[in-house]
Write a structure and sequence with these properties.
Distance between the termini: 12 Å
Protein name: DUF4221 domain-containing protein
Organism: Algoriphagus formosus
Strand content: 35-45%
Radius of gyration: 22 Å
Keywords: Signal
Signal peptide: 1-23
Length: 379
């Protein structure tokens, strides 16, 4: 497939060349292709964020961050209804933003905010609201991947408000001696809990980081967690949260671990994130594991930036230049490929997708009246 790059070594010895050719062929057979399997179009002028889809895959839930509208579509992308439920007023979630938004089964939607959780029907009418017993710990607004809803359980990466004194150390949260991994019922009762693995980056080197919450994927009676700063995937029993296994992702030289931000630097976490690497996502597809991380930025490029300013033109140009996606494919625990693809992939539960661009295309070339989501599998 043209999106994979392979290197063939040519030997003067004919026998050696033949042997190398066979080895290359064997390796080629192991590597799956990124295969387009479906697509949907949504009639919107801006790209909405895919938040979730129902358990029967009949409904998809999006959010337009420009208009603050929740968007419900069918499986073809046809819009069924939209609603703005931000701010104050009847049927709102009493906030200008939310932490996560998920389907509950096929007929309800739960929105998690710092003020509580809000349960809606598919008309976006509020059914009930309740205080959040477990506060989700994240710096990601709108769609943290550390909150999952499945069957009778909810998984959260967070803490009980009553436990705040136990985990706070001066101006920092202690991450090593508290069960941040929690499974609760819908009443908010904690049923199972567990600690962050001791090998995670921010446990080994305590300090202030860009993020602490994991990317989480449920697979039957297992839940896989990827802490974005650490090149590992940890597998727990679900819902019991007993650590069962781990996989070292063995990234290449483009990966540089993020260090804790220097004290006294207001924007230190952003510059350390720019300097280092973090994992973006992962997904299981047809017995393969696909994951990817962002390349590091040379120290001299980061050091040349103004440490008092984040997001200016120079900062963004450096980010665009260096923070490229590096993809990895695993079969079982064997890494069978690592490299770059000319595509920006995203996931939502079991879906692997891109927006407005297939491999090799530029999704920003023209303005669009509709937004296209392309779905893929590894085959």
């Amino acid at each position: 497939m043209k999106y994979f790059i392979f290197i063939a070594f040519i030997s003067i010895c004919l026998c050696s060349c033949s042997q190398s050719s066979h080895e290359a062929d064997d390796q080629l057979e192991k590597i799956p292709t990124l295969t387009l399997v479906d697509s949907m179009q949504i009639d919107r002028l801006v790209v909405p964020a895919l938040l979730d889809y129902s358990f029967d895959s009949q409904y998809f839930l999006f959010f337009d961050f420009q208009s603050d509208e929740l968007i419900l579509t069918d499986s073809s992308g046809t819009i069924i209804r939209t609603a703005n439920r931000s701010g104050d007023g009847p049927d709102t979630y009493k906030s200008s933003y939310f932490t996560a938004c998920r389907f509950v089964g096929n007929e309800q939607i739960i929105i998690e905010t710092y003020t509580g959780n809000y349960l809606y029907d598919l008309q976006f009418d509020l059914i009930e609201s309740n205080p959040s017993h477990i506060t989700i710990m994240t710096r990601m607004m709108g769609d943290t991947q550390g909150f999952l809803v499945e069957n009778d359980y909810q998984f959260r990466f967070g803490y009980l408000e009553s436990d705040l004194d136990k985990i706070r150390m001066e101006n920092r949260i202690r991450m090593d001696e508290y069960d941040f991994l929690k499974v609760s019922n819908f009443r908010g009762d904690v049923l199972f809990s567990s600690r962050v693995p001791a090998s995670v980056n921010y446990i080994q080197k305590p300090g202030d980081y860009i993020g602490y919450d994991p990317i989480a994927k449920i697979q039957g009676d297992r839940i896989a967690l990827q802490f974005m700063l650490t090149p590992m995937i940890y597998t727990y029993s679900y819902p019991e949260l007993v650590l069962k296994d781990s996989l070292f992702l063995d990234p290449g030289p483009d990966f540089k671990p993020i260090q804790p931000a220097p004290e006294q630097e207001n924007f230190g976490i952003f510059f350390e994130e720019l300097r280092g690497s973090r994992y973006k996502d992962f997904i299981y597809s047809n017995d393969f594991l696909l994951t990817w991380y962002l390349k590091a930025t040379p120290d001299e490029e980061v050091d040349a930036l103004d440490p008092r300013v984040v997001g200016d033109e120079k900062y963004m140009s450096i980010e665009k230049k260096y923070k490229k996606h590096v993809y990895q494919i695993f079969k079982g625990k064997e890494k069978i490929w690592e490299g770059e693809w000319p595509i920006k992939l995203m996931t939502k539960k079991d879906l692997l997708y891109s927006v407005n661009a297939k491999p090799g295309e530029d999704g920003n070339e023209v303005e669009r009246d509709v937004q296209t989501f392309y779905f893929y599998e590894l085959k």
